[in-house]
Amino acid sequence: MSAIGLEELRLHRDRIRRESPDTDFRLEEAMTVLSPRDAKDVEEAVRWALEGGRTLDVIGTGSKRGLGRPCDCDAVLNLSALTGVTLYEPDELVLSARAGTPLAEIEALVAAQAQELAFEPADYGGLYGAAAGGGTIGGVVATNLSGPRRIKAGAARDHFLGVSAVSGRAETFKSGGRVVKNVTGYDLCKLLAGSFGTLAVMTDVTVKVLPRAETETSLVLSGLDDAMAARAMAAAMGSSCDVSGAAHLPAAAVGGLDVEGIPQDGALTLLRLEGVPESVRPRAEILSGVLAGFGGCERLGEAASRPVWRAIRDVRPFMLRPDAAADALWRISTAPMQGPALADALRREAQAQVFYDWAGGLIWASVPDAETAGAAAVERAVTAHGGHGMLVRAPEETRRRRDLFTAQSEGVSALSRRVKDGFDPQRLLNPGRIWQGL
What we know:
This protein folds into 4 domains: about 1-80, no CATH class; about 85-210, Uridine Diphospho-n-acetylenolpyruvylglucosamine Reductase, domain 3; about 215-315, Alpha-Beta Plaits, CATH 3.30.70.2190; about 320-400, Metallocarboxypeptidase-like (Alpha-Beta Plaits, 2-Layer Sandwich), CATH 3.30.70.340. The chain has 14 helices and 19 strands. The protein has helices at about 5-20, 40-50, 105-110, 135-145, 150-155, 190, 225-235, 250-255, 275-290, 300-315, 340-350, 375-385, 395-400, 410-425, and strands at about 1-5, 30-35, 55-60, 75-80, 85-90, 95-100, 115, 160-165, 170-175, 200-210, 210, 215-220, 245-250, 270-275, 300, 330-335, 355, 360-365, 390-395. Helix 1 (about 5-20) links the parallel strand 1 (about 1-5) and strand 2. The longest helix has 14 residues, at about 5-20. The two termini are about 25 Å apart.
C-alpha cells in the first residue's frame, strides 16, 4: 500500500476537481492509506469517506488484524502516527494518550512510577505469529482485551474514563473525563470499549492506572482433573485471600507455558496472590489451608509467578509456532462451574484442546479443523451450557464466512443494529468486522 497524508489527499482531490469538474473524485482507494497526524485530520478523513460513499478499515499498528472478519474497505485509516501521552498524573492515577500510542510505551512509563494498567492487557502477537509488543492503547480499549486479573480488577472498559472520537457521521465528540464518577446520561466509553472500531474512531483515550503490587506468589496444585480444579478455584475465590488470578491447565497445555521452574509432568491449577510482602505471606498460608482438601500446594516465588501469568495472559500454550498447523482458536466466556462440561463437549465434538482462566469462567479452546473453526460445536456447547464465544484465530477465508462472536439473540441483534445506525448510519467504519452487514 502506498501511504498518503490527508493534506496530499486534499490537494489531489482539489486538483482533479479543477481540471475535471465533471468527473467524480476517485482515487485508487483500495491502495490508499490515510495517515492522520491529529484529531482534525481524522475528522477530515471520515468526512472524505462520508462524502464519497467510501468505507474505512480503521487500524493502529495492525497487530490484531487477524481478530474479527476481514474488512474489504475502500481505504485504510491508519492511526499509528497519532501517538503521545497527553497527560499523566501519577498522584491522581490517571493517564491520557492518543489512540495510536504503543502500549509498551505506556506500560514502561507507568512502571517507572510503580503503577500499572490493572486490567492486565494481553499481547496477542504470538497468536498470529507476529512479534510481541505491537499493540496500541486504542486497540486494547477498542477490543476490550483483559488478562487474568479481570476477576479482581475488572475488564478494560472498567478502567476507561474518557474518550475523544469521531463518529461515522464525521462528528467529533467527547465522553467521560479524568475521574470515575463523572458520567451523566449515556456512558459512551463503555459502549466504545469492545466495539472494534465499528462505531467511532477514537483519537484520544483516558484510562485509570493503579499502584503495582510490590510482590506476588502463586500456589500450585498438581494433577487435578477439570471438575476438581473448578471446585478448587471456586473455593479459593470464595475465601478472604483476595486471589487475583485463577487458572487451570490440563497436562496437554502445560508444556506450552515454557516458563522455567514450572512442573511439566501433569495438569496444573494456579492461584495468584499479590500485594505487599507482609500481606501476601499470611494470605498464602490461609489459602494453603483452604486448598488442603485438594492436595498439597507448591508455592512459586515472584521470579516464576510473574512470567507464568504473562504466559497465561498471552495464551502462550496456543501460540502460533512456525512448525505448527494454523488451528482455530476460540475464547469462550461461561459460568465458572459450567466450564468443565462445556470443555468436555468441545473435546468430544471438535477434538479441542483447552485451558481455563478467570477461575474457569474463560475457556481457551484450540480446534484442529481450521476450515470450519469447529463453529457448530462451539455454538452447540455455549447454547447448552450458557455463555458466548469469540473466534480469535482462523484462516482469512474461514473468518469471512462467519461472525466474530457466536450468535446473538434476536433482541440483542436488533439493539446492535440500532446502535450502529446511531453512530455510523452509512456503515463507513470497519464494516462487517464483528457482524456481517454491520
